[in-house]
Amino acid sequence: MTRIAREDLYDTIVVGGGNTALLTALKAHEVGGKVLILEKAPKELRGGNGYFTTGLYRIVHNGIEDIMRLTSNITEEEKNLQIKPYTADQFFTDYTVATEGLVDPEMMELIIENSTAAVEWMATDQGIEMEFGAGTTVRLGDTLVHVGSLAIQSKGGGAGLSDAIYGRIEETPAIELLYETAAVRLLVDDTGKVYGVTAKQKGRIQDIKAKSVVLACGGFESNPAWRARYLGKDWDMCKVRGTRFNMGDGLKMAMDIGAQPFGNWSGCHAIFIDSESPQPALLEDGESTSKRIYVMGLVVNAEGKRFVDEGEDTIDLTYARYGQHALKQPGRIAFQIFDKLGHERIQKFPVQDYLGGTYVQCDTIEELAEELAVDPEALKKTVDEYNAAIKPGGKLPYHHLLGEKEDLQADGIKPPKSGNAFPLDTPPFYAFPVCCGITFTFGGLKVNRRGQVIDTADEPIPGLYAAGEIIGGLFYNNYMGATGLTAGAVFARITGENAIKDCQ
Ligand SMILES: Cc1cc2nc3c(=O)[nH]c(=O)nc-3n(C[C@H](O)[C@H](O)[C@H](O)COP(=O)(O)OP(=O)(O)OC[C@H]3O[C@@H](n4cnc5c(N)ncnc54)[C@H](O)[C@@H]3O)c2cc1C
Questions:
Q1: Residue nearest atom 35 in ligand 1 by C-alpha distance
Q2: Rounded to an integer, what is the distance from CA 109 to the centroid of its chain?
Q3: Which stretches of 56-212 are DSSP H helices?
Q4: Which CATH class, in words, describes the domain spanning 270-437?
């Protein structure tokens, strides 16, 4: 029978073919390990969720000098940008607020402390080009304004990131990589030590031995049965934004040998996406099905009623929480509505979510309602009540960046719109149908600072490590934009090193 793998004994087997797995393999190789990577996807669908991203990394930095050191493409104009330093304290505060103080403090500290070094290692030691995140700026007349903490992006976004890391792997013959090969079971000896995996490749099954195994094979967002089981009713009916291969295999394999489930197993990252998004998600669509700039308009359901505070906070603090609300609406659908001025505002926005996709345009709210099969009177009532409730005050997440003088809120209606409450009264009107798109799940395995998987008796499982989105305790109830890739890179470096050094 044909063998699946080349060697009889690897130093480590890395399970997964996403950004975390590949960086783990590069680190393990850097410290002298003989490495095998198993990617369940075929070559043309490789790269995990990382491939679908815009490649944004949240890191601690001291402003433009740091950004210039890490990146390759800063223009003369951008060099003069006022980029506020993003301090460790600010990262800590944002992370704590976003996760309602529930994030595992040890994990958070590790991510924040190592964020810059991890991206610097990728850029300088591994030659994975980073760029200034030009998508995080807005042009106001002749002036370029930076809008937030996310200033670093992989060249070519997620696709560029994936191609660059796979390029590094392919030019390193000492790292072996098998596509269409899933790990299905962990091998454990009678001392409880993990000594390899059972792998499955197109129907062939083989035990492959290694001194350690690193699970970097994501969560369970692509598995409808597990979504219904852990996230609850209707979650089997949502769409999946990223890879179709993250079915919870690594979680199951680890828990089967006593690994401790940890974190927010009923929670996930889910956003509003174009309701016509194809399933499974297409690699070439990347992020383009996202619909995140609801903050500039209203979101209504098929009964013409609002159900979220569209201006509650900045997009990066609400977008990952709001997708789930679409799942609970009649028909599991919602509509994001803008008037002419709102539509102009979203075009100014750095994230170009609304330039394509599915939408309806009409001259009156009633016509818009008819096109959407929503009761025209109900929608008109919602819009009229909203316009009548607008008054000065509220939050300023984006107003000033778009050159608006005064912030507005709509108060006294349910739910309120706490910021960016621009009137919705100037035709034409636009409606974007959206549904819930899951990005990834929050529940995972408990690991320690060395990346070792912890068992249900709170002891490390010898020979077993985990990195990336399979780790639990990183996010609770909410997520902070651009933390996933950073966490993946940080844990890849830690785990790749320890999986080799601990097991010599
Ligand atoms: C549309 C979208 C946009 C995003 N944008 C951003 C962003 O800009 N910035 C950011 O920080 N984060 C972003 N994220 C989140 C980010 O993608 C994840 O945080 C990150 O990719 C997690 O990396 P990972 O390597 O742990 O998992 P993944 O990238 O999901 O990789 C998991 C891998 O495991 C493989 N696998 C699964 N089961 C097995 C098995 N049994 N055997 C072998 N292999 C297996 C899969 O094929 C896959 O290759 C986005 C996610 C999506 C979907």
A1: 16
A2: 19
A3: 64-70, 76-79, 88-98, 105-120, 157-170
A4: alpha beta
Tokens linked to 104? 């595992």
> Which residue stretches of 145-302 are H helix?
157-170, 224-226, 249-256
CB of 17 shorter than 6 A to ligand 1: yes
**Measured CA distances, 63 to 132, 283, 298, 374 (Å):** 11, 33, 35, 48
- Give the span between the Cα atoms of 373 and 331, in whole angstroms: 12
Task: Please give the backbone phi and psi of residue 334, each rounded to the nearest 5 degrees, phi first.
Answer: -145, 170
pLDDT on residue 215: 98
Whole-prediction pTM value?
Answer: 0.96
Check if 324 has its Cβ closer than 6 Å to any atom of ligand 1. no
pLDDT at 157: 93
pLDDT band (50, 70, 90) for residue 28:
very high
Residue 18 has what DSSP assignment?
B
Instruction: Report CA(471)–ligand 1 centroid distance (Å).
Output: 12
Q: What is the pLDDT of residues 444-498, one digit of tens each?
A: 999 999 999 999 999 999 999 999 999 999 999 999 888 999 999 999 999 999 9
Task: Determine how β-strand 429-441 pairs with β-strand 239-240.
Answer: parallel
* Peptide bond connecting 42 to the previous residue in cis, omega within 30 degrees of 0: no
Q: Where are the beta strands (DSSP E) in 320-393?
A: 334-338, 360-362, 390-392
Same CATH fold, 270-437 and 9-223+442-501? no
Give the CA distances from residue 491 to residues 82, 95, 119, 206, 432, in Å, rounded to whole numbers and listed in that order. Answer: 31, 17, 12, 28, 38
| Distance (Å) from CA 170 to ligand 1 centroid | 20
Question: Phi, psi (5° rounding) for residue 211?
Answer: -75, -25
Taking residue 288's Cβ as centre, other Cβ atoms within 10 Å add up to: 17
- In three-state form (DSSP H/G/I as H, E/B as E, the rest C), the secondary structure along 229-257 is HHHCCCHHHCEECCCCCCCCHHHHHHHHC
| Phi and psi angles of residue 419, each rounded to the nearest 5 degrees, phi first | -160, 165
Measured in Å, residue 483 CA sits from the centre of ligand 1 at 12
Ligand 1 and 50: CB distance under 6 A: yes
* Whether residue 416 has its Cβ less than 6 Å from ligand 1: no
The best mutation among 177, 485, 490 to test binding of ligand 1, ranked by most ligand atoms within 8 Å of the C-beta, falls on: 485
Pairing of strands 298-301, 334-338: antiparallel
Cis peptide before 416 (omega within 30 of 0): no
Listed by start position, the domains of the chain span 9-223+442-501, 270-437
Q: How far apart are CA 139 and CA 145, in angstroms?
A: 6
pLDDT of residue 137: 62
Residue type, 163: D
Q: Is 19 in the pocket of ligand 1 (CB under 6 A)?
A: yes
CATH architecture of 9-223+442-501: 3-Layer(bba) Sandwich (3.50)
DSSP 301-313: ETTS-B-S-TTSS
* Length reported for the chain: 504
Closest residue by CA, ligand 1 atom 12:
484
The pLDDT assigned to 7 comes to: 83
